[in-house]
# Entry
Amino acid sequence: MRLPARSWTPLTLFLLALGACLVFIVSFPLPEVKNDAVEYLALARNVAAGAGFSYDGATPAVYRPPLFSLLLGGWFAATGTSSVLSAAVFQSLVHALGVLAAFLLFLEVTRSRGWAFGGAIFLAVNPLLVTRVVFVLQEPTLLLFTTLAAWLSIRLVKALSPGRAALAGAAWGLATLAKTVTGFAPFLLLGMGLLPGRWRVSWRGWEAAALLVCFAAVIAPWTVRNYLHVQRFIVVNDQGEGLLEWNVEHADPSGERLVAELREKGVHGAERRAALWRYVRENPWHFLGERVVKNAVRFAAPPRDWWIAQGLVRPGEHRTSFWILSGLFHMPLYLFLLFRTWQWARGSVDPVFGFLALLYWSYWIEHAILWGDPRFGLAVYPLLVCMVLPVGRGEGKGRIAPLIEEPEPAAV
# Structure
């Protein structure tokens, strides 16, 4: 592959990713704003109007995580428009930035700049990612900040220092403000210090402290804001009870009846939570067995929300298009995930690569337990692409072999 000159590579990737999204936006009608997107859009519009993080412009909101709506609201304020088209352009810019973040991550993992560039192009024009920009949902933002945090974590593991630990901690704090599901990542990093022998990352006290302090420092202001408004300790957002109720309601007909009865009787607060948890305890096989397996399978499936919104497929339908998307963009990557995990377990690849595999597995398991919608896997999709990149064993623990530099093309 003949690469652009070094100084032009990031710009080339950014423009390619942005152009793919903008062409897609003008080529098809924008889907209806509904479900979760209604709330994210309302939050962003009120932020832009100076009414705070609120659905109605008066009551502070704590149900949704803040980062996406705050950034989108800032974009609305800067551009002077809060249309759905404006939101799609914002999403396109975030997608392009996510591709750049992935390119940086790939450069830390592979020794070949050409492979890193190719992996970034794969993301830039990937239909699973490009089609997300027309929805007012979090996925492009989650991918950007999760990938940035993973990149800074890899740099930290390769060369431990308090400064790099502080940057990684702050990045995971931002990713957690985007969605709390990444809150475990700093502890996963530290946990690698407990692994035996060749898998261990050797932490020193100052580095561990810098990681955790900066992680907490980024999140703490929002936690304080939540407490001041609702007098409850809510670290990021208060979506846990809603998720619990949703899972009970969709468990089976008896779960649906229970939730309907609670609503009809006006049961709220601690009494409502106790009734929901009692149902979970009475149905362990569903919540710890059957449901977990189904969630894991759904998480690993390609998201087809745009095709569904266009009426091209029905939810849950597995026609030829589903298997084409799976075969091109998912199944091979998961096979490489298994292969790289096996290599890391044998000590054939470095601890930095092991962190990426552990991060993906942990994220997947977490969503199997919580809820495994296919779109939720997009936040860590660049980690799957990392599994395909050629890697080498480093010259010692916590290091990867140096980057192989392709010569820049001669000036014309």
